[in-house]
Amino acid sequence: MTPPTHDGFEPSSSDVAAVLAWFEHYDALAVAKDVDAMADQAMFPLNEVTDGYAASCDREKFVAQMTEQLGQPGDVSMDSVRTPHFVNENLVFVITDATITAAGQSHRVRYGDLLVKTGGEWRFQTMVQGGWGEF
Asked: Residue 106, Cβ neighbours under 10 Å: how many?
């Protein structure tokens, strides 16, 4: 079976705006530490990829990881610049350059997310970030 050739899909400004709005909503959930609502935005099993490591993650594991990573209540801010790269109208890989500030400490990060449109809604399916695994 041969995959279809590139169909020439060019995202419209509304396609890009919809993806950026999805991330704005997701970021607000993260700042609010609403981990269950964050999990509702995923397509499980989720893929997690970092240096020398890749694994699948079910909802239960995702909720546990994010609960630990988001920590205790407190002031958290995120300043992000996102660049969507559409594969087609239903798949988009988004590179994020962000500064996250919590407890007075700022950290710059770069990561990528693969979003899949299913049932007319975007869901994240793969998270990619360096620095978490072995080199």
From this structure: 10
